[in-house]
Amino acid sequence: MRKITAGLFIALDGVIEDPQDWHFPYYNDEMGTAVDAQLGNADTLLLGRKTYDSFAGAWPEREAGGAEDAEFARKLGDARKIVVTSQDLTFTWRNSEVLKGDLIEAVTALKQESGGDIGMSGSVSVVRQLLSAGLIDELHLLVHPIAVRKGMRLFEEADTTLPLTLLSSTPFKTGVVHQVYGPGEQLEGGYEEAKQHLPQDN
Questions:
Q1: What is the pLDDT of residues 24-51, one digit of tens each?
Q2: What CA–CA distance (Å, rounded) separates 40 from 61?
Q3: Does 202 reside within a domain?
């Protein structure tokens, strides 16, 4: 079964909106390697409409420009790009198509197809739905040491919790921490169980 990995730049207070306004000072070689491993090595990209529009408006030009980011731009261009949208689109970026049918059913079927990893970047509304459905195998959060204090956060208020499992945690020299989470199980217990782990006087 194919693996879905989702990557997000996130502030310490959970804000994920407009990362271009606050995350670039923290971008170094370590982060570049992490982003390339999660997104650049995927052979399929699953993107929300807004994220796709942003990518399609920038990366083809960067590929053609031949600067330092041209190789990464080429990887994105060569990947199959599937866009989650209810609108008809006219594509100018190669290898692009619209996801057809119900999101959960279509992504479940996509994971059953042959191929490599399916990468996601941004696309918060899609990430939320796939997390709730248990379809994201790895949630890559690049946690920046800054509180933005305004803007949309990754997790909305809800009546139920969403347990996750920490798969890895890697600090960068900039203070960014690359945390990778997978699906988790709901834990049980209260203070009666917790107090057993408090320090005891001998």
A1: 999 999 999 999 999 988 999 999 999 9
A2: 17
A3: no
